[in-house]
Amino acid sequence: MRSVAGTELSREQYLIHLNADYQLLAAAIPETPVEVPSCPGWSTNDLAKHMAHVYLGQAFVVETGSQAENKEHLAPYPRTEDFMEFMSWGFDAITKALDINRPERPTWSWHHSDQSVDFWFRRMAHETVIHRIDAEQAVGAITKIDEALALDGVDEVLDFLPLMGSWPEVPNVDFGIVSIVAKTKNGSKVWDLHFTDKAATVSAAEKPNSAARLVISGDAEAMDLYLWGRIDSSDPRISIKGEGEETFKQLMQVAVL
């Protein structure tokens, strides 16, 4: 398990958050489906179905070490139209897989530097909390994200950027440095992102780069939600200094889809 700025939690903490946020997610999904504003075209039933497939797919990865490329590769699941039962089945599958497989055992992940079961503790905790927010936004009752988990969420999503390689969908990418600042009650973490038309790099920093074209700051929860596209810069918790935010948002959209 790796982080850029030393934000990672223990496996036990990830499992605690995974369980807690799953319970909040399940509680938020209403009996009568409603639209999910942060996932255009989805209802809350679609969200539950998505989470079921994510959990089952990653359970297959953890158990076999191989990528699940189609439904035939998923862990066994009930043939049911009850999306909550389906999601619960998937959740049980991934938590069992994480519990019985050694964290250091090699397995597939999309991150070239972390090809182990360990990767999926962190990924599943963050996948669950962001989609828990989606469900809560849909019904208008949002629960705060744990500060340490949110801070680590900022680190995780920024670490996706270097994996993109190039940016054919986004014009005029070669715009230099973006500094991201996530504030907590104990201080702040800073990440510098260096963009060219061919690559992006991310590194931890002590303070925003003086050469940054764009500095985006906010509390850890707000930054996590902003980087995942769940809030925008109109939220009073987010501060934007400099230029290029629209291009940066396009880059983040490419990275997180």
Automatic annotation (TrEMBL):
Residues 149-244 form the MDMPI C-terminal domain. GO terms for molecular function: metal ion binding. Residues 35-135 form the Mycothiol-dependent maleylpyruvate isomerase metal-binding domain. InterPro entries: DinB/YfiT-like, Maleyloyr_isom, MDMPI_C-term_domain, MDMPI_metal-binding. GO terms for cellular component: plasma membrane. SUPFAM superfamilies: DinB/YfiT-like putative metalloenzymes. NCBIfam families: maleylpyruvate isomerase family mycothiol-dependent enzyme. This is Mycothiol-dependent maleylpyruvate isomerase metal-binding domain-containing protein.
